[in-house]
Design goal:
Helix content: over 70%
Largest sheet: none
Radius of gyration: 21 Å
Number of domains: 1
Shape: globular
Distance between the termini: 40 Å
Number of strands: 0
Length: about 450
């Protein structure tokens, strides 16, 4: 008996988006728990929690970079292509896209494992580690790198599960791993006194369990698209299409990593290890509040992709508008929460007085203009969902590389450590408006012409 999935061609568009988005938001939150729980427990290790949390923060850009490859092959690359193929009734092509994405993710995970393990010391120092924090960062990353393959398999395959309308299964995929991680973390960190090593072991084991579940679901008869190996082969043209479309998501993830590297280095120069710890808290809070935004736009993505392939422009436009309005309302609420309760948010990750004192004003500065992130994500995801790789890639680079990185480097000469923090809200305003207004001009113009052609 086949598990029911969402039919994106019928019914209310907002309802279709939220039917996918709500389980995905839960799944995103659960997925966030993998690393968030590590940070919470590590930050409260007696006597060394503050410096251990800072060491773990050095690993975030590397973890983000590894995860970005899943966007390359899955969420932003293969999954939208598969959805469009299903909308065009080309099921064989959709199955080939799934097989190709799975293979590319597995091979890439093996390569990343070797690269990180061989070059771990220079990588960590380049990413902002000091002699004081290196041992903590090394202990975590060396073990986490061994889980690169299951991490990429889980994230890539889950994109295909969600793109078929099986949002509940996608939620269960990450829920399995997160529950295991939550249980194992305190046991290994505190009871077995393994510290950051215990956190890394728990994360790798839990991701492996999630990968196994996702793989066997997509091998089962319940899935619309199944992973099959007979008659499947890698074709260069299909690989190029997946990578070309997925590059925008990869660039977005990779540039997040670049920004974190630059921020950590500048924080170390202008504020020392204390402010590297502050950046860890800022990034953690941002991830918490970005999760629903990403979940809503992710829920809109398969709806837009399917209906674009099915030549239903009105439904594509409605999905994009709904994603924009929903995320704008939510991000406005987030901004208010951060302004009113910065200390309470910081206390999720530390009780160190100096770290709390520094984090409170930093959060208010860093999140100023957070509402403009909704413009960035809605515009970016609409481009990606419709297979428009070039503008999606450009606006990924524009906000992070062209705006944030130079400002993060040069503004501290004018404002000290606050200059590192100011760069983020400036990029949100300029980058967000540029991405969304350009999307409205290009995509909505095309949709209007498509409607006129249908009439």
């Amino acid at each position: 008996m086949r598990i029911s999935h969402t039919d994106f061609s019928k019914g209310s568009v907002p309802a279709a988006v939220m039917k996918v988005a709500l389980p995905m938001i839960i799944a995103e939150f659960v997925n966030l728990l993998y690393n968030m729980v590590d940070r919470i427990y590590i930050g409260h290790i007696p006597g060394e929690g503050s410096i251990a949390l800072t060491g773990l923060g050095i690993c975030f850009p590397i973890i983000s970079l590894i995860s970005a490859f899943a966007r390359l092959f899955g969420f932003n690359g293969g999954a939208p292509l598969a959805s469009m193929a299903l909308g065009e009734k080309k099921e064989e092509e959709a199955r080939n896209v799934l097989f190709t994405s799975f293979t590319l993710a597995t091979i890439t995970g093996l390569i990343l494992t070797l690269v990180v393990l061989i070059f771990i010391r220079p990588i960590l120092y380049a990413f902002g580690s000091s002699d004081q924090t290196y041992a903590y960062a090394r202990d975590y990353l060396a073990i986490y790198a061994l889980g690169s393959v299951p991490v990429l398999i889980t994230l890539t395959l889950n994109a295909f599960i969600n793109s078929q309308g099986f949002a509940t299964i996608g939620m269960i995929t990450v829920l399995i791993g997160a529950v295991i991680n939550i249980i194992l973390d305190p046991v290994l960190i505190f009871i077995f006194d393994m510290g950051v090593k215990g956190a890394a072991i728990a994360t790798v084991f839990s991701q492996t369990c999630s990968a196994i579940f996702a793989f066997f679901f997509l091998r089962s008869r319940s899935a619309v698209l199944r992973i099959t190996f007979s008659g499947m082969r890698l074709e260069s043209k299909r690989c190029v299409r997946i990578v070309a479309l997925g590059t925008s998501g990869f660039v977005m993830g990779a540039t997040n990593s670049i920004v974190q590297i630059v921020c950590n280095k500048c924080a170390l120069i202008w504020g020392g290890d204390l402010y590297v710890g502050v950046m860890t808290i800022l990034n953690s809070v941002r991830e918490i509040f970005s999760t629903p935004i990403n979940g809503i736009t992710s829920g809109a993505s398969p709806v837009m992709s399917f209906n674009y392939g099915a030549k239903a422009p009105a439904r594509v436009r409605k999905a994009s508008n709904f994603a924009m309005l929903s995320t704008l309302i939510f991000s406005s609420f987030v901004w208010l929460i951060v302004v009113l309760f910065p200390r309470q948010l910081s206390m999720l990750f530390t009780t160190e007085p100096s770290l709390l004192t520094a984090s409170e004003p930093a959060l208010r500065i860093y999140f100023f203009g957070f509402i403009f992130m909704s413009f960035q994500t809605a515009g970016q995801q609409t481009f990606v969902s419709l297979g428009k790789a070039k503008p999606a890639i450009f606006f990924s680079l524009f906000r992070k590389v062209i705006i944030v990185v130079p400002l993060t480097i040069f503004l501290p000469y004018l404002f000290g450590m606050n200059g590192v923090l100011i760069a983020e809200p400036i990029s949100n305003v300029i980058g967000g408006l540029a991405a969304y207004l350009t999307m409205r001009h290009i995509v909505f113009g095309e949709l209007r012409r498509m409607e006129e052609g249908i009439r």
